[in-house]
Prior knowledge:
This protein is of the alpha+beta class. The chain contains 3 helices and 4 strands, in the order H-E-E-E-H-E-H. It has a domain at 33-88. The chain is globular.
Amino acid sequence: xxxxxxxxxxxxxxxxxxxxxxxxxxxxxxxxxxxxxxxxxxxxxxxxxxxxxxxxxxxxxxxxxxxxxxxxxxxxxxxxxxxxxxxxxx
Length: 90
């Protein structure tokens, strides 16, 4: 697993994962051409994981380096599916 373990500030995830960026329809952000379903959202809220509230096993296994995730909450502005999305998701 690459996304979720590397920061976009340090590496180009599109290049590293052989993904193709496409311009979104309703927001100023890229979408991933290979994804059969795309949700385009605006940011509503974000918050950081609080280590004191995590189970010690999860903290050790998922966050051994101490770099905790930030959760983002969004309002969906657009949802799009490729014509063959149902077949691709089986």
